[in-house]
TrEMBL record:
Keywords: Membrane, Transmembrane, Transmembrane helix. The chain crosses the membrane at residues 103-124, 136-155. This is Holin of 3TMs, for gene-transfer release.
Length: 176
């Protein structure tokens, strides 16, 4: 599990467009692009891809960024709008929550946010422990990432907000 988290964090940091695709219905296409262009092995297993990215060199990360640019261009040429796919994915998750009257995402989000600020407050009050301080900082980083994801789920991301507004309006059949 730790390897998978590291893999996802690296891709999200270096190639966010690929990470968006990996988290949605285009995961297979994105995985094949990474396998083919980074490993030279189109049929590489997910474990092989994860291992290659987890142990990536600086040159590999540059190559991953190049793969992302090529992937985005190919998707655009094919008429696939990655942001639209991601927006529709988030919208379906929110619609499910409303339809099912499911409080799980809300409670989970609240727990993550309270945990993040609680750990930060504890660190500011008590300082880092002599043993395990590195692990605590890793946890704070993970909680910070999750807090951002919770915010994006409930409020949307500010990245390209103008484009998202247009996408949402076009999905609803209206104009902004």
């Amino acid at each position: 599990m730790k390897s998978k988290r590291k893999f996802i964090d690296i891709v999200a940091t270096v190639a966010p467009t690929l990470a968006t695709a990996l988290g949605g219905p285009l995961a297979g296409v994105a995985t094949r692009a990474i396998a083919d262009q980074l490993l030279g092995k189109p049929d590489a297993s997910p474990d092989e891809i994860e291992a290659a990215i987890a142990g990536a060199t600086g040159a590999d990360l540059v190559r991953l960024k190049e793969i992302e640019a090529k992937f985005a261009a190919e998707m655009k040429e094919a008429g696939v709008e990655l942001e639209r796919v991601a927006a529709m994915d988030r919208d379906s998750a929110r619609a499910r929550q409303v339809q099912m009257r499911d409080w799980t995402p809300t409670l989970l989000g609240l727990t993550i946010i309270v945990g993040f600020f609680g750990v930060l407050a504890w660190i500011f009050h008590s300082g880092l422990p002599e043993r395990g301080g590195e692990v605590l900082l890793i946890m704070v980083g993970a909680l910070g990432t999750m807090t951002t994801q919770v915010n994006n789920y409930f409020f949307g991301s500010t990245k390209k907000s103008g484009e998202k507004t247009e996408i949402i309006a076009s999905l609803k059949g209206g104009r902004t």
